[in-house]
Amino acid sequence: MPSFTEENYLKAIYHLSDAGTKPVLTNDLAEAMKTKAASATDMVKKLALKNFLAYKKYYGVNLTPKGNREALIVIRKHRLWETFLVQTLGFAWDEVHEVAEQLEHIQSKRLIEKIDEFLGYPKTDPHGDPIPDRKGKLQEQHAIACDQLKEGKQAVITAVKDSDSSLLKLLDKIGAKPGKKIKVLARETFDDSMEALLDGHKVFLSKEVSKNLLVKE
Amino acid sequence: MPSFTEENYLKAIYHLSDAGTKPVLTNDLAEAMKTKAASATDMVKKLALKNFLAYKKYYGVNLTPKGNREALIVIRKHRLWETFLVQTLGFAWDEVHEVAEQLEHIQSKRLIEKIDEFLGYPKTDPHGDPIPDRKGKLQEQHAIACDQLKEGKQAVITAVKDSDSSLLKLLDKIGAKPGKKIKVLARETFDDSMEALLDGHKVFLSKEVSKNLLVKE
DNA sequence: ACCATTTTTTAGATTAGTCTAAAAATATAT
DNA sequence: ATATATTTTTAGACTAATCTAAAAAATGGT
């Protein structure tokens, strides 16, 4: 069993590698973990020794199948707990991340299966992110970031990339959440912002916001 | 905020001191924490420095009001999570202790208040132990161990002292749980066992079992 | 191709919690 | 009351995860 800290590193590597598609650099990993490059190197060496990572000095790391599975199990727990907090306990979607960061490390297969069952086997969490199954298999998303959407195109919001609370509060304000329809009306080349139609209302989306909004045409 | 380990020490000291009524000896604490006396001494010194404990060398420790409050808050979380696991997720009462040992350390006031609300503000956990309120105040129990009960006396089971899974399974088998009526029929002086009437059935209780069964006349 | 910059790794130290072995204090037994 | 046994504390060492500072490797510009 990986330690609390090891689990957090594996999860960060999974996210930084875009679901395992590219190697993760030491500095990026250190930044994501809010630590120093030297510490990241140490941990990477340890995780490589335990066969969670393929590590080549100076060239970054990749998750092994074992590491990938482990990361996805932690992500499954995180997303199930977030769903529980919002659906069952009535938390707002911008309040759940920190608590789920703790709950995801509870070691009990039985507990997470019971929570899954209690929630009725949800497919996505409150942010629209897919929940891996108990084997660590992930449903493909086929979504694109909203800033890639062509003008005049209609699409459905499927997920929000970042779990930052200030972003989620902003999205709440304009009524953007998974399931809502969105249509790009106009774009500004100056700052890459856009005007869009969301639920019949005109809204302005900055580049930062539209990049974090995943949609499906 | 005390660390994970510090919280476990405080909880152990609370239980070993019989709710703060007597000092706790280093060896007993070490045994309860499954560690060595030297480690217990180190931790006790640290907790005393942080004003959770009153410590006099070679004479054991007592919880300060601050330490008592902290211990009761951990115990509150433990018992609320146990109640949640049994009532909401359908765990058996002998399965919840280990998981609750982990969940009790989640740091989120909001979360535990929401769980409390969701459960309808229960007064006791599945083992009959009282749940401290959010200030760390505990309802008095006024219960005696079943082995103190006089022959012929009728009483109601209020709680089970130990959370050991094999004890709880045994109690399940004979149908002993909080709320059930019990009457002492006869005692054996040889082994301090007893025969009792439980829900219309005759049952035999060893000294070990009857000591762990709390009743109210 | 070489020098400067950036990134990564190594070396050595630090903290929390633990350990073993030895010393010190307390308790017990005659 | 004094020796013996028990309990507790101290001293010094270990592991996991971190840090700073310095060394080593890779990258980029001309």
In short:
The first copy, chain A, has 217 residues and is α+β, with helices and mostly antiparallel strands.
Main sheet specs of chain A: 6 strands, antiparallel
Helix content of chain A: 40-55%
From the structure provided, what is the oligomeric state, counting identical versus distinct chains? homodimer
The value of Rg of chain A in angstroms is: 19 Å
Overall structural class of chain A, as computed from helix and strand content, comes to alpha+beta
Distance between the termini of chain A: 41 Å
What would the principal axes of the Cα set say about the shape of chain A? globular
- CATH homologous superfamily annotation of the domain at 144-216 in chain A: Ferrous iron transport protein A (FeoA)
Give me the side-by-side strand order of the main sheet of chain A.
Answer: 3-8-4-5-6-7
Fraction of residues in β-strands of chain A: 15-25%
Q: Name the chain pair with the biggest interface and residue counts per chain.
A: A-B, 18 and 18 residues
Rounded mean pLDDT of chain A is: 94
- CATH architecture descriptor of the domain at 144-216 in chain A: Roll
Per CATH, what is the topology of the domain at 144-216 in chain A?
SH3 type barrels
Task: Work out the helix count of chain A.
Answer: 8
* Weakly predicted, low-confidence segments of chain A: none
Number of strand elements of chain A = 8
The H-and-E topology of chain A, N to C, reads as HHHEEHHHEEHEEEHE
CATH class annotation of the domain at 144-216 in chain A: Mainly Beta
